[in-house]
Amino acid sequence: MTNHAKPSAGIHYQQQDASYFDKRGLRRHAGPWSLWALGVGAVISGHYSGWNLGLASGGWGGMAIATAIIAVMYLGLTFCIAEMSPALPHTGAAYSFARSSMGPWGGFVTGLCENVEYVLTPAVIVFFIGAYLGSIFETPAAFQPVWWLLGYLLFVGLNIVGVELSFRVTLAVTLLALAVLVVFWFSAFTHLDFSTWALNIAPGGGELAGGHGPLLPMGIGGALAAMPFAVWLFLAIEQLPLAAEESVDPRRDMPRGILLGITTLIISATLILVLNPSVVGVGAYALSQSGEPLLDGFQAIFGAGTAKFLALLALVGLIASFHTIIFAQGRQIYSLSRAGYFPTFLSVTHGTRKTPHVAMIGGALVGLTIMLICFFGLGTQEGSAVIGGTLLNMAVFGAMCSYIAQALSFILLRRHHAHIERPYRSPFGIPGAVATIVIALMTIYFQLSDSTYRVGVIGVALWLAVGICYFAFIGRHRLILSPEEEFAMQRGEQAADDDDGRAA
């Protein structure tokens, strides 16, 4: 019987003494509500903008169906993660799950797909932050890179100062972002006309004067085409396990935080989808072409004279997501670096703060560099379109690939590593993981059906190719026995022994 603990052919480990890990220590602080805020805060900007573009593909009814399908995918994914994260309580998260179930190559490719998401998503969010600030302070388009730089400096700095401050800021901005949404929901209830405004997209597209149009103006095909946009109502909830080594009790608190988070997001997504397009004077057609759907709704309710104040309120959701995904970006790079998959200098933590400052600075520099190349290389207008569209789509594609790998990891861990203690077990089991894989593949298919998304896929393919070449020629010879690696190898030995015992 094959010993699952033995490294794959061509994989080599370097021994490191205690000083290596002393320089890469983290500090435990997060409880279940801090984890809830981390998950909800990462996603909440998608409830402010981005989701609404799916209305152009499927109309209101199509977007509703797409949201329901994507919600099923995220339920399947989050329940898988809720089981795996306390059983494998390491900062590596997706990489850790895949490493234990599919070996070093599977762990690396999964981590690399997730890396695309966590480097590019903050870049896209800070782009929108810059757009809002430019509108509020009436700065010229050429000033946008200054807003991006200031955004990265402020929130990377807050994350470096300390995990305690980082989680306090996360909780505060998440609660504030939700409070803004609650104000909108209650304000909108007295300004609704669903049939006239939410159903004002004509069959095949175009605005239908007077509304009362069909629920599915583009048919069921339009509903399926809206799926990639519905992803933005939930994207990044899966980042919670990246805080496992900073959680006070990950075995107890991680499932609670994850399940509280996805419940909150489903409620919020349902309300924003029903109310925002139904506000009198807004409508689904206008929202389908808007960059600030929540702001449009606020202005229709309170009047355009309060535009700048309302824009500041709408900015809160973007700030919440930017801050929390910077946190996730740092931990994701840190975990792959500590294990030797990425250069090990990236995992050094701050001497007193115990935060992965090098990883956060490195990820921010990569994201900012890509933005500046697009902005100056393509010109102000075209560069902005690339940043706001193509990079966003690249992040979604990377996320879908990592979801498939995480669901597959869940299935393999259930089948081949049943001996691992599981403080929490998913009630959906393997069928829930299979549903996640099927819906993620459907989403990728409809991404590839759109020429804009295809450009992003090519970009992700190049990213993965560079990373795989690095690992093939350098990284696989320099792996370190980090907690994730040791756990995977020890549990592999136990699985092999169990298999041998059953065979005997």
UniProtKB/TrEMBL annotation:
Q: Which UniProt keywords apply?
A: Cell membrane, Membrane, Transmembrane, Transmembrane helix
Q: Any stretches that span the bilayer, and where are they?
A: 33-51, 63-82, 118-137, 143-162, 169-189, 215-237, 258-287, 307-328, 358-379, 391-413, 425-446, 452-473
Q: Where in the cell is it found?
A: Cell membrane
Q: InterPro entries given for it?
A: AA/rel_permease1, APC_superfamily
How is this protein situated with respect to the membrane?
A: Multi-pass membrane protein
Main location as per UniProt = membrane
Would you say which domain of life the source belongs to?
Bacteria
What name goes with this protein? Amino acid permease
Starting at the broadest rank, the lineage of the source organism is:
Bacteria, Pseudomonadati, Pseudomonadota, Gammaproteobacteria, Oceanospirillales
